# Entry
Amino acid sequence: MAPRISRLRPLLDQIQRTQRRAASQAASEVSAIRPENGTVIFSGIQPTGIPHLGNYLGALQNWKRLQNEAEPGTKLLYSIVDLHAITLPQQAPMLRQWKREMLAALLAVGLDPERSSIFYQSSVPGHSELMWILSCTASMGYLSRMTQWKSKLHLADDVSALDEKAKASLKLGLFSYPVLQAADILVHRATHVPVGEDQRQHLEFARECATNFNHTFGAGSRLLVPPETILSPAKRIMSLQTPTSKMSKSDTDPRSRILLTDSADEIRKKIMAAKTDSAANAVSYDRTGRPGVSNLLELWASFDAAGRSPEALAAGMAEGKGSLKDLKVQVADVLVEEIPPIGERYRAFLERDGGRYLDEVEARGAAVAIANAAETMEIVKRAVGLSN
Ligand code: AQP
# Structure
């Protein structure tokens, strides 16, 4: 009997680890909170292009809601994460331009610099300083199982960092991206992090980094704060051209995404050209079987004033015998009402005071973030033995 159990031991351990991880993940996720005194909200976005509908529905809309509902005493920190952007090759003039454009876009969606601190990640040295300290205890095995570096390099999900294929293209910065992301969150002692569903795995890693650090250097006391994830109600928004992949700034096909700066005309053209399927010319919601049609229904539902679900919208269309073309016209109409006003505000912010307004907003946000990060770094350095 004993030898059989010992053979099963690795499997049992693995099952227990998976169960523990699922339980801890469920405990660390919420769909909405009302920020109150003591809450610290942090989130980031890469300056790798103009934000699209996926960024908006998966993250930015939630950032604005949290800001608008925050009670006095809540800290709101939103970072344009330029150090993350350079984990893939970037042209320097383009990166400089994208940083400013992202700042203008965040203001255009409704972030208010009087209430939210908006700053470039590279303006706050604490982010990279804490990253180094965390990377001294981060597990290569855990990082190797992360999916983002594989999807960025178009590698299979089961590839390991030591496989020949991965070694040929994988850079250390891209591999250790989740450690920097953990540092971004932990250096600000964020209690809550609003992100899209695609970031779930990284947030779990950040919690693990905080717990490990507290265990190693603080005898279990809360030197670093394990953050809770606030998942946006909008699921992952998919590419309009390949609806099995997520909508992304770096997709080479510009027709795959709706930018927050697109004109009404551009929006209509992209939606009318969206890939659906030839299963039927009627509308039905089936995320696995009909990803293109379901993505359009989800976009519509995300803006529906009556709050109807994608299933309810599909049922409503089927009753009226709506075709896929009718669905596209409907989705385009909804988006044309919502998106172009954001683009107009974006252009006004870019030009305000000859561009100086954006510099001032960033400098103010960075000053708050530098002071906030410095408090954590003092605690961390003392705990590790780097300072007295
Ligand atoms: N398609 C999506 N659906 C829902 N949420 C999304 N987010 C991104 N794409 C979708 C959320 O947007 C926030 C900022 O993301 P990011 O720019 O930091 O990085 P990303 O997730 O890698 O976004 P992109 O657009 O795909 O950028 P590139 O092409 O540069 O990698 C995050 O909260 C993310 O969840």
